[in-house]
Amino acid sequence: SQQGEEDPQALSIQEGENATMNCSYKTSINNLQWYRQNSGRGLVHLILIRSNEREKHSGRLRVTLDTSKKSSSLLITASRAADTASYFCATWHNQGGKLIFGQGTELSVKP
Amino acid sequence: EAQVTQNPRYLITVTGKKLTVTCSQNMNHEYMSWYRQDPGLGLRQIYYSMNVEVTDKGDVPEGYKVSRKEKRNFPLILESPSPNQTSLYFCASSSSGRLFEQFFGPGTRLTVL
Fold it and tell me: Within a 13 Å sphere around the CA of A81, how many CA atoms are in the beta-carbon half?
């Protein structure tokens, strides 16, 4: 992939459990973002973490960033069935003026 | 409401029949872009535009054209669609001051028979 890998590719959990998704990237970044996509629909921006931040919270979401390992993780706590979606990390690249996305993690939360 | 709109949302067409997918944003954004999403390949950029009359190729521009005559619109043109252009297409926009903060349209699912 252009950007790197996300793992796991698919994750199935029960409601109330926590879900952790990981993302790796290849180049230096200024920030990293996470997006959510409900099946076949548009991308919704969830959270952005800057390269000088190690952790960021937004509601039930917690994102960490380790620039030395070029990796990030997204934790969704107390998951709900409505969290069922695909989750993508993305980094902005000035050269080419584009976001480069990971392959995504497909999360299924069973009621 | 600030948004990016795309039309049509769904389209089934045949090989060689020219089509245009429209994209419009109401946020006065300078930057607009088109991506396609395919299973196993993720999202890949097709074309982007930094401002009116300024467009540039992305990673997979073959078979596509774009134009940016007005700030709010960025249509994607397939002059002679082929089955390998069957995909889910997304338009995105952002301001020049925060290029990385992209707002995505709802997507257009295109099937070329």
Answer: 2
